[in-house]
Protein backbone atom coordinates (compact mmCIF):
# COMPACT_ATOMS: atom_id res chain seq x y z
CA UNK A 1 0.00 0.00 0.00
CA UNK A 2 1.40 3.40 -0.93
CA UNK A 3 -1.21 5.85 0.33
CA UNK A 4 -4.16 6.27 2.66
CA UNK A 5 -6.84 8.94 2.39
CA UNK A 6 -9.47 9.72 5.02
CA UNK A 7 -12.07 12.47 4.57
CA UNK A 8 -14.60 13.60 7.18
CA UNK A 9 -17.36 16.23 7.20
CA UNK A 10 -21.04 16.83 6.56
CA UNK A 11 -20.82 15.62 2.94
CA UNK A 12 -17.26 14.36 2.43
CA UNK A 13 -17.86 12.35 -0.75
CA UNK A 14 -17.24 15.10 -3.41
CA UNK A 15 -14.00 16.28 -1.75
CA UNK A 16 -12.90 12.68 -1.22
CA UNK A 17 -13.47 11.78 -4.89
CA UNK A 18 -11.51 14.89 -5.96
CA UNK A 19 -8.57 13.87 -3.75
CA UNK A 20 -8.79 10.28 -5.02
CA UNK A 21 -8.44 11.60 -8.58
CA UNK A 22 -5.06 13.06 -7.62
CA UNK A 23 -3.78 9.65 -6.51
CA UNK A 24 -5.23 7.76 -9.48
CA UNK A 25 -4.71 10.23 -12.33
CA UNK A 26 -1.65 12.24 -11.29
CA UNK A 27 0.26 9.59 -9.35
CA UNK A 28 -0.76 6.50 -11.32
CA UNK A 29 -2.04 4.69 -8.22
CA UNK A 30 -4.94 2.25 -8.09
CA UNK A 31 -7.64 2.61 -5.48
CA UNK A 32 -7.56 -0.75 -3.77
CA UNK A 33 -10.18 -0.06 -1.10
CA UNK A 34 -12.91 2.53 -0.73
CA UNK A 35 -15.34 2.66 2.17
CA UNK A 36 -17.87 5.50 2.22
CA UNK A 37 -20.38 6.44 4.87
CA UNK A 38 -22.51 9.48 5.55
CA UNK A 39 -19.84 11.36 7.54
CA UNK A 40 -16.51 9.96 6.36
CA UNK A 41 -14.74 8.18 3.53
CA UNK A 42 -11.58 6.08 3.67
CA UNK A 43 -9.51 4.90 0.68
CA UNK A 44 -6.29 2.95 0.29
CA UNK A 45 -4.03 3.22 -2.76
CA UNK A 46 -1.43 0.94 -4.24
CA UNK A 47 0.76 0.85 -7.29
CA UNK A 48 -0.27 -2.77 -7.86
CA UNK A 49 -3.70 -3.28 -6.34
CA UNK A 50 -5.03 -4.54 -3.04
CA UNK A 51 -2.51 -5.84 -0.54
CA UNK A 52 -4.17 -8.08 2.05
CA UNK A 53 -1.24 -7.90 4.48
CA UNK A 54 -1.82 -4.18 5.01
CA UNK A 55 -5.50 -4.40 5.85
CA UNK A 56 -7.28 -6.20 8.65
CA UNK A 57 -11.08 -6.19 8.73
CA UNK A 58 -12.49 -7.79 11.84
CA UNK A 59 -16.18 -7.68 12.47
CA UNK A 60 -16.26 -4.19 14.00
CA UNK A 61 -12.96 -2.59 12.94
CA UNK A 62 -11.14 -1.74 9.70
CA UNK A 63 -7.37 -1.31 10.06
CA UNK A 64 -5.36 0.17 7.19
CA UNK A 65 -1.59 0.34 7.57
CA UNK A 66 1.23 2.01 5.67
CA UNK A 67 4.69 0.90 6.76
CA UNK A 68 5.60 -1.69 9.38
CA UNK A 69 3.97 -1.39 12.80
CA UNK A 70 5.31 -3.55 15.59
CA UNK A 71 2.61 -4.12 18.18
CA UNK A 72 3.41 -5.79 21.50
CA UNK A 73 6.49 -7.41 19.97
CA UNK A 74 4.62 -8.77 16.93
CA UNK A 75 4.65 -7.58 13.30
CA UNK A 76 2.71 -8.29 10.10
CA UNK A 77 -0.48 -10.35 10.29
CA UNK A 78 0.28 -11.46 13.84
CA UNK A 79 0.41 -7.83 15.03
CA UNK A 80 -2.93 -7.10 13.33
CA UNK A 81 -4.52 -10.15 14.99
CA UNK A 82 -3.34 -9.08 18.44
CA UNK A 83 -4.45 -5.49 17.79
CA UNK A 84 -7.86 -6.72 16.61
CA UNK A 85 -8.41 -8.62 19.86
CA UNK A 86 -7.22 -5.70 21.98
CA UNK A 87 -9.52 -3.22 20.21
CA UNK A 88 -12.50 -5.21 21.44
CA UNK A 89 -11.39 -4.62 25.06
CA UNK A 90 -9.82 -1.15 25.22
CA UNK A 91 -9.60 2.10 23.23
CA UNK A 92 -6.80 2.65 20.71
CA UNK A 93 -5.47 5.65 22.67
CA UNK A 94 -4.58 3.32 25.55
CA UNK A 95 -2.42 1.19 23.24
CA UNK A 96 -0.04 3.87 21.91
CA UNK A 97 2.87 2.83 24.12
CA UNK A 98 2.63 -0.75 22.77
CA UNK A 99 3.57 0.32 19.20
CA UNK A 100 7.01 0.54 17.58
CA UNK A 101 8.18 0.65 13.97
CA UNK A 102 7.62 3.09 11.11
CA UNK A 103 3.96 3.34 10.15
CA UNK A 104 0.82 5.34 9.64
CA UNK A 105 -2.47 3.63 10.43
CA UNK A 106 -6.16 4.41 10.06
CA UNK A 107 -8.44 2.50 12.43
CA UNK A 108 -12.12 2.81 11.59
CA UNK A 109 -14.91 1.83 13.94
CA UNK A 110 -17.54 0.22 11.71
CA UNK A 111 -20.23 0.90 14.30
CA UNK A 112 -20.18 4.50 13.08
CA UNK A 113 -18.02 6.06 15.76
CA UNK A 114 -15.54 7.47 13.23
CA UNK A 115 -11.88 6.73 12.70
CA UNK A 116 -8.50 7.48 14.24
CA UNK A 117 -5.23 8.19 12.53
CA UNK A 118 -2.16 6.92 14.33
CA UNK A 119 1.50 7.31 13.38
CA UNK A 120 4.79 6.08 14.74
CA UNK A 121 6.43 7.97 17.59
CA UNK A 122 8.91 9.75 15.29
CA UNK A 123 6.34 10.63 12.61
CA UNK A 124 8.56 9.22 9.85
CA UNK A 125 5.74 8.58 7.36
CA UNK A 126 4.46 11.99 6.33
CA UNK A 127 0.85 12.95 6.98
CA UNK A 128 -0.99 15.95 5.59
CA UNK A 129 -4.13 17.74 6.78
CA UNK A 130 -6.34 19.75 4.41
CA UNK A 131 -9.50 21.58 5.43
CA UNK A 132 -12.18 22.88 3.06
CA UNK A 133 -15.17 24.39 4.80
CA UNK A 134 -16.55 21.70 7.08
CA UNK A 135 -14.57 18.92 5.38
CA UNK A 136 -11.21 17.72 6.75
What does the model show?
This protein has helices spanning 13-26, 76-87; strands at 3-8, 30-36, 40-46, 55-56, 61-71, 74-75, 99-109, 114-119. The radius of gyration is 15 Å and the shape is globular. Strands 4, 5, 6, 7 and 8 form a five-stranded antiparallel beta sheet that branches. The chain has 136 residues and is α+β, with helices and mostly antiparallel strands. A hairpin with a 4-residue loop joins strand 7 and strand 8. Mean pLDDT is 78; it is low at 50-54. It is built from two helices and eight strands.
Low-confidence stretches: 50-54
The major β-sheet equals: 5 strands, antiparallel
Overall 3D geometry? globular
* N-C termini distance: 22 Å
* Succession of helices and strands: EHEEEEEHEE
**Residues in β-strands, percent:** 35-45%
Helix content estimate: 10-25%
User: How confident is the prediction overall: mean pLDDT?
Assistant: 78
The value of Rg in angstroms is: 15 Å
Count of distinct strands:
8
Q: Helical element count? A: 2
Structural class given helices, strands, pairing?
alpha+beta
Amino acid sequence: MTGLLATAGENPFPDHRRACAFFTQCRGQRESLCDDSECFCVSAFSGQGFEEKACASPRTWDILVLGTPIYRGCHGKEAMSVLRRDLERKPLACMAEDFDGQFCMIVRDRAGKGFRVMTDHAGIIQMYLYKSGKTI
